[in-house]
Amino acid sequence: MAFDMLVALLLIVSFLFLGHWYRNRNSTVGNWPVVGMLPALASNADRMLDFFTDMLKSNGGTFKIQGPWFASSDFLLTAHPMNINHIFCKNHGNYEKGPELRQILETYEGIITSDSDMWKRQKKALLSFFKYNKKSAAYMDRILLQVLQGSLIPVLEHFQTLGTEVDLEDVLGLFNYDYMCLLGFGVNPKTLSAELPVVEITEALGHRDDALVHTKTVPPMIWKLQKWLQIGKEKKLRRGLEMVDDFAPHTHFIKTR
Asked: Could you read off the pLDDT of 151-206 as tens digits, one per residue?
């Protein structure tokens, strides 16, 4: 009797996995019974944004992540311009965030988490800020030229003279930080130099983004427990948010490598 039950169980498991293989034989990532795509997410935990980018590229700009059966963690990724325009502009009213998503996105409070009339008012204010006019365009060009001539070009010429290999992501990250500080606050922290220092405020923002991905790719009970115990990514998030709250234009937040 026990042997018959074992054989039946093996047949059921084999049937499930054969069905899984047939349904996903052309998929770029495995969607397994019970656990869904959790193995792929776990194995790419240290490069989650790159993993999402790869999935979008190989699936026409839109991809559905399916989580474990026991957790409501399915979500849709899209980078297709028509989809984005449909969701954020043409039919924004059909895509209410709701309390659950607002809880996940609480560190991004503002236009990202707002709905209805509040969203319309914030969108209008944001568009007015970016609306083109000659004065604002001339100001932005002047600021850009100042950082280009004062920092970026000299630093690149320095590395070229020495024949030193350099990670352009680090260089352009510091360039963007200096430019945005000068544009938004009128203060140039001048972090872009040959030493390529680490800017802790940008690291804090990175922790915030990592925590957002983490809360959407693991069951809610896990990240909520981490938040309560202040461990893992939730601990990094709290420290990062404290640094962002304390941020002031005259503070550089630089540490040496």
From this structure: 999 999 999 999 888 888 889 888 988 898 888 778 888 888 888 887 777 776 66
Rounded to whole angstroms, how far apart are CA atoms 64 and 150?
45
Residues 67 and 140 in one domain: no
Per DSSP, the three-state class of 113 is: coil
Residue 113 within any structural domain of the chain = no
Which segments of the chain are extended strands (E)?
Answer: 62-65, 75-78, 198-199, 254-255
Residue where a domain stops, chosen among 67, 95, 123: 95
- Domain with 56 in it: 2-95
* Alpha-carbon gap, residue 223 to 105, rounded angstroms: 13
**Same domain assignment for residues 142 and 232:** yes
Token representation of residue 4 = 């018959």
Length of the chain measured in residues: 257
**How many domains are contained in the chain?**
2
Instruction: Of 221, 216, 208, give the one whose Cα is nearest residue 51.
Output: 216
For residue 35, what are the CA distances in angstroms to 56, 67, 181, 184, 213? 21, 7, 44, 45, 18
Residue 144 and residue 61 share a domain: no
